[in-house]
Specification:
The chain is α/β, with parallel strands linked by helices and 423 residues long. The chain folds into two domains: 203 residues, Enolpyruvate transferase domain (UDP-n-acetylglucosamine1-carboxyvinyl-transferase, Chain), CATH 3.65.10.10; 208 residues, UDP-n-acetylglucosamine1-carboxyvinyl-transferase, Chain. It has 13 helices and 24 strands. Helix 6 runs parallel beside helix 7, helix 8 packs parallel to helix 12 and helix 10 runs parallel beside helix 12. The N and C termini lie close together (6 Å). Bound molecules: uridine-diphosphate-N-acetylglucosamine (UD1). The site of uridine-diphosphate-N-acetylglucosamine (UD1) has 23 residues, from helix 5 and helix 6.
Length: 423
């Protein structure tokens, strides 16, 4: 397994271009199952999760290939299997997004239950309820969700009992080819869902209310191919902003529409960082300052993203006072805390809140990555630490950060990877 060595102490100066959003790419790749035509996706990040989704689609009979560094061609004309097997689903929960497209196009899908994961139980009941509302018959057999419909799914009104990114996506995908009108309420409205809806409309879907919690979808008989460029990754952008806030320096982050990271920027500005948005709205200059301790809680969009909680908490470790971070989306998303404490942070946990007492410095240590965002928080902690940090099990990072070491090195960080290190 690979490890990353970080020799901390260098401030960050330079430019970082963020990659396309993984959390937009995955549902959009699943959406290609809705048409026989070719779909071309641009700005697709080269990540392990993207390869896993390719593997899953290929398993269904889809043909997909890279036709440029970040350009992917996908064609789902000859679907041969409607089964998403455990071996692939267990690697990545986003696999469940093939449920909606397969069911609505073919009237049948068999998807392995994703199960829990490191950050919590992560239920799928809302994915199932929305399919049932659209007329599907669902049963569970041997750990698989078996979904069937007689003829086409039927448009319906459905209110999600809990706001869920994943279930909203599955509901939208299934409704596009349903018979008649679907109204979905209490939907998640994340920018990645907006990107998916815009792409589906380019394929001929009729979705309105995009970006709100209430979506109306007029079902179509069929969808056609399209070319789509993915939005930038707001979590990646936010990660680098937290990094410069913690380590010091000044960086320009580009490739991301300011509007979708404004909530992150406003929170970071409260901690003392200063920002300047360039006229094109697609790049932002971030400057570090003395770190003020400021409370934060994770919420559904447009609230502060759970995917940036670990990075923000890392920034708070060097805050001038005490701050409280509340994690409201997942029940078990503090695995980075013991590792940060091993690096000298002073954090205590009380239920779903963490109390962070700012310390003067962090020390390098050998630490273990436990999930994607926890891994990157340890890297940025290492950048601020006085001595060397070794982050083990960084395969999590490769699920979500394209060229992380290179992007940081370009800004002056002393960071490199050891391939095939011991566990
Ligand atoms: C969540 C985040 C998303 C992030 C992703 C990866 C939110 C709202 N969602 O999306 O921003 O990118 O994790 O870290 O911030 N739930 C149910 N029943 C369901 C589906 C979900 O009870 O059928 C619960 C989950 O257990 C969780 C909450 O609802 O507590 C949010 O779930 P959901 O948004 O679906 O999670 P992800 O799609 O994984």
């Amino acid at each position: 397994m690979d490890s990353i060595i970080v020799n901390g102490g260098n401030k960050l100066y330079g430019n970082i271009i963020v990659s396309g959003a993984k959390n937009a790419a995955l549902p959009i790749m699943a959406a290609s199952l809705l048409t026989c035509d070719k779909v071309i996706l641009q700005n697709v990040p080269r990540l392990v999760d993207i390869e896993t989704m390719k593997e899953l689609l290929n398993n269904h009979g889809t043909f997909s290939r890279w036709i440029g560094e970040n350009k992917l061609e996908i064609c789902s004309e000859n679907i041969t299997s409607k089964i998403a097997p455990y071996d692939i689903v267990k690697k990545m929960r986003a696999s469940i997004w093939v449920l909606g497209p397969l069911l609505t196009r073919f009237g049948y899908a068999e998807i392995s239950m994703p199960g829990g994961c490191a950050i919590g139980a992560r239920m799928v009941d809302q994915h199932i309820e929305v399919m049932k509302a659209l007329g599907a018959k669902i049963s569970m057999q041997k750990g698989y969700i078996i979904a069937k419909s007689e003829g086409r799914l039927r448009g319906a009104h459905f209110n999600f009992a809990k706001i869920s990114v994943g279930a909203t996506i599955n509901g939208i995908l299934a409704a596009t080819l349903s018979d008649g009108q679907t109204m979905l309420s209490n939907c998640a409205s994340e920018p990645e869902i907006v990107d998916l809806c815009n792409m589906l409309n380019k394929m001929g879907a009729k979705i309105s209310g995009i970006g709100t919690q209430k979506l109306t979808i007029e079902g179509c008989k069929e969808l056609h191919g399209t070319t789509h460029t993915l939005i930038g990754d707001r979590i990646e952008a936010g990660t680098y902003l937290c990094a410069v806030g913690l380590v010091g320096g000044e960086i320009t982050v580009s490739g991301i529409n300011y509007n979708i990271i404004e909530n992150t920027v406003l929170q970071l500005a409260k901690t003392g960082m200063s920002f300047k948005v360039n006229d094109d709205n697609f790049s932002i200059i971030a400057k570090a300052n003395t770190i003020k301790s400021v409370d934060m809680q994770t919420e559904v969009y447009p609230g502060f993203a759970t995917d940036l909680q670990a990075q923000y908490m890392t920034l708070m470790t060097l805050g001038n006072n005490t701050s409280v971070v509340a994690e409201n989306i997942f029940e078990n998303r503090f695995m980075h805390v013991p590792e940060l404490c091993r690096m000298g942070a002073n954090i205590s946990i009380d239920g779903h809140t963490a109390i962070i007492r700012g310390v003067n410095e962090l020390n390098g240590a050998e630490v273990m990555a436990s999930d994607l965002r926890a891994s990157v928080s340890l890297i940025i902690a290492g950048l601020a630490a006085k001595t060397q940090t070794k982050v083990r099990r960084v395969y999590h990072l490769d699920r979500g950060y394209e060229n992380l070491e290179k992007k940081l090195q370009n800004c002056g960080a002393d960071v490199h990877r050891i391939h095939g290190d011991s566990v």
